[in-house]
Amino acid sequence: MSRLFTLSTLRQLLRRRHPRAPPRSPAPILQRLRPRLGRPSALAMTVASTLGWIPIWIFATEHVAQVMTVQGPSMAPALSPDYHAAGRRDRVWARMYQPTHDLRRGTVVAFWWADAFLLDPIIRRLTPFVRRSPLDAEKLLIKRVVALEGDVVRTRCPPYPLPEAQVPVAKALIVAQITHVLWPWARAGHIRAEDWTPSRPGLVLRHVPLEMTEA
Fold this sequence. Notes:
Helix content is 30%, strand content 20%.
């Protein structure tokens, strides 16, 4: 008992002479570091705010809308009619959100180039254009919808091996609908499918639902 009493007494004496300090809050440490670090400069704040907007910008241009530049005369006179004469390129508004919604004949769309299309002699003759090199397998193109899936169209035979062909399902390649011309100002406005007149009357012969052809 005397030994235990001695140890307990010794512990009490040590606690009185060397009291345990309370835990420090991080506030005094930050207050001491603040004069050394200084306040962030205006340039640092601008860079930080700009970097914060980059993910939002990428998401908006990939999934909401973006401005595209049309190169080449393939869509003339609707788009870039003065490309050959003056090299002028139209700026158009591309709606990326629900690009296949309300798809009709005459709608202008942007879609990805696929290597499988090169096997088609009609597509090979009517090589479209837009923004990227024709040698790029992931080339983004702009074209007008002249027939919908299930339409039976009259082909140019030759070079197409058959006089008729049915339009397959290719909506997965469409990434945007071209809805407005933004530049030049003289032709700025809404691109409506109703204003389109087919250059080849009688191109669409009939419509056959794809369910019937698969059956």
